[in-house]
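Per your request, structure below.
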């Protein structure tokens, strides 16, 4: 995929650099948080997993550290989507390449129409390159459907940091999302989990993950270890919702991310996690995630508290307890004294 992406980029060449290389990755921008607008993508479903579309702003109750906030319901149709696709090509991913034959077509459906834009980043022990943001993912058909094998690494944390830095440069009015296609656990990153949590919250990015299991017993074993104080929850469709509860200290959240970073960052950001074992499941899960990505309510609010650090969020529907709400569970407020 590295060679294919590079060749395709040169064919598209115009003036200026086309790639953001790992050794010159964009510096993450720290957003001002004293008066910031927090975006909370929220999916509402019935007990039979049907999406609910007819709710209004006053149907929702959103709390920040337990304090109700004044929220607004924005129209997603007026907000372009900036999407980064993170595709693992290293380590065990080479055994999944045969499942990627229709990946470009499926990603085009997830992206939707212009002005939505996507950038593709492949990674092994490091994020190798980023394609320019484009509304036409067909420009990268061969590179996506037939990637080149990487090395033995799977640096998920480093790659998430890289993707978040790319999204930090996108317009603040855009919805920001990452689609991570990888194994569940990190292998070789140098980025601390806390930094990914911070950047995810600062950039208002929702992370969606599609995972394959290089060792299918690995997750099963992790779930049968000594009982966790916040045991993971498996939903009827088999998705894994994560270990942590934001009422717990940040350290517990970071520890949970070591077990299944793909699931934890998705849950923390208000995105979604799914797994696949074959091409049919990959196509089906991509269709599901794409539908959910475009059919979420976009709640926004200006926090009443400027206290720095991790802020737990909760979104409820007091008048509709029979409905299921999936939303981001936190945002990160930086310390204004440390911002320059």
């Amino acid at each position: 995929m590295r060679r294919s992406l590079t060749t395709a980029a040169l064919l598209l060449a115009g003036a200026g650099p086309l790639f953001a290389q790992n050794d010159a990755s964009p510096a993450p921008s720290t957003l001002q948080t004293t008066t910031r607008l927090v975006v909370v993508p929220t999916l509402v479903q019935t007990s039979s997993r049907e999406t609910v579309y007819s709710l209004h702003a006053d149907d929702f109750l959103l709390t920040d550290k337990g304090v109700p906030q004044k929220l607004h319901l924005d129209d997603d149709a007026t907000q372009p989507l900036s999407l980064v696709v993170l595709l693992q090509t290293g380590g065990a991913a080479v055994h999944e390449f045969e499942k990627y034959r229709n990946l470009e077509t499926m990603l085009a459906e997830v992206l939707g129409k212009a002005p939505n834009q996507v950038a593709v980043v492949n990674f092994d022990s490091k994020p190798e390159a980023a394609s320019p943001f484009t509304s036409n993912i067909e420009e990268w058909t061969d590179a996506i459907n037939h990637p080149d094998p990487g090395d033995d690494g799977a640096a998920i944390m480093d790659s998430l940091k890289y993707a978040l830095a790319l999204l930090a440069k996108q317009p603040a009015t855009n919805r920001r999302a990452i689609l991570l296609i990888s194994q569940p656990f990190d292998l070789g990153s140098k980025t601390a989990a806390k930094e990914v949590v911070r950047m995810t919250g600062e950039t208002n990015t929702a992370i969606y993950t599609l995972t394959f299991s290089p060792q299918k017993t690995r997750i099963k074993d992790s779930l049968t270890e000594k009982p966790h104080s916040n045991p993971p929850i498996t939903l009827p469709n088999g998705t894994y919702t994560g270990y942590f509860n934001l009422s717990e200290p940040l350290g517990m959240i970071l520890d949970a991310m070591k077990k299944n970073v793909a699931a934890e960052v998705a849950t923390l950001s208000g995105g979604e996690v799914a797994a696949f074992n074959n091409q049919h499941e990959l196509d089906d899960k991509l269709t599901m995630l794409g539908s959910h990505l475009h059919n979420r309510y976009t709640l926004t609010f200006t926090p009443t508290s400027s206290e720095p650090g991790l802020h737990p969020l909760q979104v409820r529907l007091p008048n509709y307890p029979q409905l299921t709400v999936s939303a981001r569970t936190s945002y990160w407020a930086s310390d204004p004294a440390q911002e320059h």
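The CA atoms of residues 113 and 135 lie 7 Å apart.

Regards,
D.
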